[in-house]
UniProtKB/TrEMBL annotation:
Organism this protein belongs to: Rhizobium rosettiformans
Function: Catalyzes the N-acylation of UDP-3-O-acylglucosamine using 3-hydroxyacyl-ACP as the acyl donor. Is involved in the biosynthesis of lipid A, a phosphorylated glycolipid that anchors the lipopolysaccharide to the outer membrane of the cell.
Keywords: Acyltransferase, Lipid A biosynthesis, Lipid biosynthesis, Lipid metabolism, Repeat, Transferase
NCBIfam families reported for this sequence: lipid_A_lpxD, PRK00892.1
Domain UDP-3-O-[3-hydroxymyristoyl] glucosamine N-acyltransferase non-repeat region: 33-101
SUPFAM superfamilies from the UniProt entry: Trimeric LpxA-like enzymes
Protein's UniProt name: UDP-3-O-acylglucosamine N-acyltransferase
GO biological process terms on file: lipid A biosynthetic process
Catalytic activity: a UDP-3-O-[(3R)-3-hydroxyacyl]-alpha-D-glucosamine + a (3R)-hydroxyacyl-[ACP] = a UDP-2-N,3-O-bis[(3R)-3-hydroxyacyl]-alpha-D-glucosamine + holo-[ACP] + H(+)
GO molecular function: N-acyltransferase activity; UDP-3-O-[(3R)-3-hydroxyacyl]-glucosamine N-acyltransferase activity
Listed EC numbers: 2.3.1.191
The protein's assembly and partners: Homotrimer.
Active-site residue numbers: 258 (proton acceptor)
Family: Belongs to the transferase hexapeptide repeat family. LpxD subfamily.
Amino acid sequence: MEHNHFFPPHSGVTLAALAQHAGAELQDESHGDRIVRSVSPVARAKDGDVCYILSRRSREDLSTCQATAIFCEKPLLSLIPSHIPVLLAKSAHTAFALAGALLHPQGLQPVRMTSGTAKVSPAAFVDPTARLEDGVEIEPMAVIGADVEIGSGTRIGPGAVIGPGVRIGRDCVIAGGATVQVALIGNNVIIHNGARIGQDGFGYAPGPRGMLKIVQVGRVIIQDHVEIGANTTIDRGTMDDTVIGESTKIDNLVQVGHNVRIGRHCGIVSQVGIAGSTVIGDGVMIGGAAGVNGHIKIGDGAQIAAMSGVLADVPPGEKYGGVPARPLKDYLREVADTLSRYDGRAKDKGASND
């Protein structure tokens, strides 16, 4: 691909070393000394690039591919042109992710916005009662409140606000403009720009005097290796805690209501809204713009299709879609029947016009 100064190419990794790092098998070991410097889409890949394919839909892109190597799985091996060395993997997607992390480590988390040697910028405000371990970085205009604790290797971006009493673990990144309050944050957590963590949730008691606010005195607990996207909001609990489980990844522009509990290794895509007190199991995947009702349970390993409306409990391991969400095979059958009836009416109308 055409390189830019934001993510410059790597100094070089041999195909043999790259294969070992990614857990792949280099089909022709005579190419082991060839050098890879960057990643690229299949169609635009040039010498020095590595790419990957996941399906036969990439067949046309391969006609212009000049990559130094390509990751693929065994069923697609016959598609690869003879001039491109193959890195055979059980999961091409996983292998490519590992390769990308090796070649462009600066692309894995928000970068430091400012230069300079000072770990704590003189333009940041750090309350005298805050406790910072060695190696903490605080960029300009960040505010670190009273009684905050931050672990070594963590970086707080410019303009970020860390509220009183917050605990942040080691090797985290809190990007510019994010706000974290009333929260306990584990190790190796990434919170992207503009995220809002720990504000009070939407809780009111309607009555003759209007909407009376219900006090929100819970916390947000974010476990290790969680990543939270830009402008996502996670409300603190009302009286219980809002919990995000270990290694869960949350996209940009997601709303997580008060008292929600999300399990480990979940994936939640952009514009999902999760209403209060919902419990989501481990390994759950929720597609973009889905809405999840409050006070329901989504079982371990369930998958929710994009733009679905989940009104009731979802059993473990099930795939649901539609509004209201129901088993995906039922939803797709209904869609197919609707389209078939629509096509039939359109043909009848066309015949009558003739």
